[in-house]
Specification:
It contains four helices and five strands. It is α+β, with helices and mostly antiparallel strands. The protein has a domain at 15-98 and 125-152: Histidine kinase-like ATPase, C-terminal domain (Heat Shock Protein 90), CATH 3.30.565.10.
């Protein structure tokens, strides 16, 4: 193929933040604060920012509790990227050995069924995450499990829609 005839490719995403947190209760609050700070200059509408923060907090709690078994010696790694049109946050734990915390993730939580014992407790985190972001993907590479959250962002200079 003639290089001049190649379609224009998207620019490589720019890393806005990269940090690790100990797997301790409350780590999700630090994660959402650091993610919010890293995207502050992107003029994300407040409602979209709140949804992103909620999804990051839920994904981080799952990573701490289910992926790393609340072991402070195991870090949760978080990265934030911006492509010009999308914000992507990755949350990585060491829970790739099994699907703890992700089992039954495709089942929609039903409060009445949960209360009657027909549906396992929990499962609200994944349900909530899926409804807060534009895309969610879970991948496993050996012992590392990564949850990739994607939120569409306004183009630079675009007027935020409320």
């Amino acid at each position: 193929m003639n290089p001049a005839a190649r379609p224009a490719s998207r620019p490589a995403p720019r890393r806005l933040a990269s940090f690790a947190l100990a797997s301790v209760p409350g780590g999700e609050r630090l994660a959402l604060a650091q993610v919010a700070e890293s995207v502050a200059d992107l003029s994300l509408p407040p409602e979209r920012l709140d949804k992103l923060k909620t999804a990051v907090a839920e994904a981080t709690m799952n990573a701490i509790e289910h992926g790393n078994g609340s072991r402070p010696d195991l870090a949760v790694d978080i990265e934030v990227f911006y492509s010009g049109t999308e914000i992507t946050v990755t949350v990585t734990d060491r829970g790739g050995r099994g699907d703890a915390g992700w089992a039954g993730g495709g089942e929609t939580p039903d409060l009445a069924r949960k209360l009657s014992g027909e549906q396992r407790p929990g499962g609200w985190g994944l349900f909530l995450i899926r409804h807060m972001v534009d895309g969610m993907e879970v991948t496993t590479d050996g012992e590392r499990r990564t949850v990739r959250l994607t939120v569409r962002a306004a183009a630079p200079g675009a007027k935020p829609d409320g």
